[in-house]
Design goal:
Number of strands: 14
Helix content: 10-25%
Order of helices and strands: HHHEEHHEEEEEHEHHEEEEEE
Distance between the termini: 32 Å
Length: 334
């Protein structure tokens, strides 16, 4: 990857949303912001290089960014060090390359908040409030009891806000930057707020989004899941651990992190919601129901502030399990 593509600093990632080019005035529907071009820039060499950089501390001042449907996404994670990625789009949407999954208890060492707080606003309104004020002093974050428990050690930034239209919730990442010596960063991923007022209008599915959903269905109709044969005895236990996870998007990501992709535990993406997961030890058949989800974006404006509003959407009703698709195949132990 050319050097000029790796010049994004943490300061650049915090550019004001008002700096978006005027030619982005029109609404961006169905991911027409050249997402595929960015994904294609990540090579096998890049993936290997990231492993070298993902150390617990780092002297570099640069944290790079990557887009959502790229490689090595994880769920709840804490990352020290460099996040290796590609050039950012204007008004960028960040997603951090991950490390091994961490428990929610680990997150609680750094922040405190009530994910089940009942907001008297819609998820969209909460999203807009975070665009205008991404600090710990945000009015609605305060209402939900949001606190930086390491305030003396780390400053606080919000990134990667997504509205989940399937279950009327908001997901976001928090970046904690060290205030004391060295260049240390901690990333808390996929923090979720669940209870908002029902929106008066629903998002519609466009043709590009429908193509994404159709492609996901095709992928899973052909897909086999691989697991390390040397750890075969651990497989059932790994599957059972999922019973403690209730957030459906986290559930799907944790599920995919269990399996091997090209010999490694990585998640290329996890664009599905999973229910009724089961595994038959005798036949080695894995069974679950699922629906596909797409990530889309629209360019919006609040006063003079322009921003990209990211949201999960599906043509399937998350609550109608009778319409869920079915997966049932033998796990391949390699």
């Amino acid at each position: 990857m050319k050097n000029k593509k790796n010049k994004n600093t943490i300061e650049e990632n915090n550019e004001e949303n008002k700096n978006v080019d005027n030619n982005e005035e029109n609404t961006i529907n169905q991911n027409n912001y050249e997402l595929e071009d960015h994904i294609n820039e990540i090579t096998d060499k890049d993936k290997k290089e990231f492993k070298k950089f993902a150390v617990k501390t780092t002297k570099t001042k640069r944290i790079k960014s990557i887009l959502f449907w790229t490689l090595s996404a994880s769920t709840i994670a804490v990352v020290f060090g460099v996040v290796y990625g590609i050039k950012k789009p204007k008004n960028d949407y960040l997603f951090w390359k991950g490390t091994p999954l961490l428990s929610e208890d680990k997150i609680k060492e750094y922040i405190q908040y009530n994910k089940n707080y009942n907001f008297d606003i819609t998820a969209k309104e909460f999203y807009e409030s975070l665009i205008l004020d991404k600090t710990i002093n945000n009015k609605y974050l305060k209402e939900a009891g949001f606190k930086n428990l390491k305030d003396s050690l780390f400053s606080f930034e919000i990134h990667n806000i997504i509205e989940d239209t399937l279950n009327n919730s908001i997901h976001m990442d928090v970046l904690l930057k060290s205030k004391v010596g060295g260049e240390q960063y901690i990333i808390l991923e996929n923090l979720t707020f669940l209870n908002f007022k029902e929106p008066s209008e629903k998002y519609t599915i466009g043709s590009t989004e429908q193509k994404q959903l159709d492609a996901i269905i095709k992928e899973y109709s052909d897909k086999f899941f691989y697991y390390n044969k040397d750890k075969k005895e651990d497989f059932e236990a790994a599957i059972k651990k999922l019973s403690d996870e209730h957030d459906l998007i986290n559930y799907a990501k944790i599920f995919e992190s269990i399996f091997l992709i090209k010999g490694e535990n990585k998640i290329n993406n996890c664009p599905i919601i999973i229910k009724d997961l089961s595994y038959d030890k005798d036949s080695e058949i894995l069974t679950f129901k699922y629906i596909p989800i797409a990530l889309s974006a629209q360019l919006k404006k609040i006063g003079k502030t322009k921003y990209k509003h990211y949201y999960f959407v599906s043509s399937y009703d998350i609550n109608d399990t009778t319409k869920y698709l079915e997966y049932s195949k033998k796990v391949i132990f390699v």
